Amino acid sequence: MLKTSYPPRTLASLIMVTTHSRNENGHTSHITQSKSLYHEKACQLANASTLSLAPMMDYTDRHFRRLVRLISTHTLLYTEMITANAIVQQHQKYITAQSDPMTHPNRYLDKLIGQGRVEPLEGPCVLQLGGSNPDILGQATAIVFEQSQQQQHPLCDYTAINLNCGCPSPKVAGSGCFGAALMSEPHLVKDCVLAMSQGCHSTLPITVKCRIGTDEHIAPFDTNNIHTPETKKRLYQKLCEFIDIVSSSGVVTDFQIHSRIAVLDKNFSPADNRNIPPLQYDLVYQLVHDFPHLSFSLNGGVDSLQHAQQHLHSCQGLKGVMVRVELIYFGFKCTLLTC
Ligand SMILES: Cc1cc2nc3c(=O)[nH]c(=O)nc-3n(C[C@H](O)[C@H](O)[C@H](O)COP(=O)(O)O)c2cc1C
């Protein structure tokens, strides 16, 4: 049984926002209220553009997202990855600072999870979290939820929360099971997403960004053998297992798939991991075909809007294409950005 503990204030405010309404029998119907909040967010997610902006550390901060929002009202934006630990720690500072009238208590959390509050607002935007401890991830989403429900100065209003299962950086993959290393721990990922959903009282869609696999599934990694039928078959089997187990949580129906494996070997830099493992779009197309009840966005190596459109035409049922900052930056053609 999954146990998740939340900071006392957070739990109190969760109860406050969810116990107002009563059903016809006079019982509190917080479930109805959560469902309607969830429905609103799920619609926002579904109605966002098929083109999304990939999460990028040190790039997709709130200032950059504001710039993109000025160009396109529909592009689905992702924050850079924020670690769940950092949110929980900064929340603690926030609680402490509340007793000091000289300090603006929200500044700690604002840096991490704050969104632009000047028109045009951020619109559809997904907060990406990094972590592998269900308890901490649950606490972090509870804090995000609490901040979005503040009556006077809500810090944020995200459309969904995403778990990073694709980052291959040794700094991340090496410290416990984190980022792409989580692809070998689908049951742990399931616990994490359940805790995240529980943390926000099931009011936000939870999504997962991952790779098509890691070298652990096909070790040793060799660019020559990655396309052999046996390797591909094994890779796809493991990928299906991951998707199956994570989606069996019942809270994740939306996946963003980076179409390369992650090589977790410490001698492989993050840049190597974005360039050396070959792109295998066919595996993403196959997922779309084999899991018609789930939605998938394709990511990796998409370098023009025509290329993005090609994927959408070639793979009926593909929900969207996730592109890098540069494409948005240089594709200043607003109409095309909402393809
Ligand atoms: C500088 C940089 C920072 C990135 N930061 C993140 C991140 O915080 N979270 C994440 O899931 N992916 C991150 N990525 C990976 C991208 O989201 C994307 O999956 C990857 O670049 C593959 O797409 P591409 O081939 O179009 O570059 C980062 C990539 C770059 C280049």
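^ flavin mononucleotide complex. Residues 54-57, 59, 80-81, 128, 164, 166-167, 209, 258, 274, 299-302, 324 surround flavin mononucleotide (CB under 6 Å). Residues 1-22, 332-337 have pLDDT under 50 and may be disordered.
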